[in-house]
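Good morning C.,

I know you're traveling, so I'll keep this short. The sequence:
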Amino acid sequence: MGESPAASALPPPPQPSFEHHPGLRGRQVEAFELAQQLRRLIDLSVSTAPPPEVTAAMAAALREVADEMEGHRPEVPLPRFLTPSGDDRPREIPLGGAMPYDPIVGPFNPMALPVRLAFDPPKALGYATFGVAYEGAPGCVHGAALLATFDIILTAANAIAGAVGPTVRLGLHFRRPTLAYEEAVFEGWVTEVTERRVYSKGQITQGGVVTVEADGEFAILSHEGVGRMATVRRQAFDTKERLGPARAEAGSAESGTPDEPVAAGETA
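The tokens, ready to paste straight into the viewer:
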């Protein structure tokens, strides 16, 4: 029995090594194979229709696997992002070795899109063949999957230019449908860098035809800065949940603390 189109489009084993990550040290090969099989299940779950009794039996078997995995959840959550250092630092590919669980290009995240990054400075490139799990209109890739892919492609282009940070705005112009089961080539490049912002553009070509154009604006902010903003946002959210919206807003007004963290790149 042959592989499905989506399965055949999955990326090769991850490079560079993620052995520096505490959740993958000593088990990188096995963890990658686990993610591969979960990707297959995602594809098969939306493209097959076993009889009810077979579906129930498979669900029960998967429940047992999930219960077993639940027993290995660490007390301290695994980091989503690691900055490699020393010999582990990538020499050719920005972002490499840092995002094993990224929801777009993370090789160990079974939800990640089937995108392979490449770099041709000043451009960042992405190659992807989207299968049935990413279909919107029949035979076409869902626009949300393309938007998510552009977010990482433009971020990679920003990294090449040495100006990275969170997304402020990202827009797409859908010129033509992007077909599923056919390779789509993403390109991203930086058009302008200011003191606090970086502006980037991109496009998808398929069979030599441009199907989508992208236009993005990003704040120039370190991961530490983004982490601080996330912490402030979490604290504000938890305060609202604990006290209730009215009391939280009153407390915020009395203390002079903004109800929401300052927007990316707008810190004093």
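Safe travels,
E.
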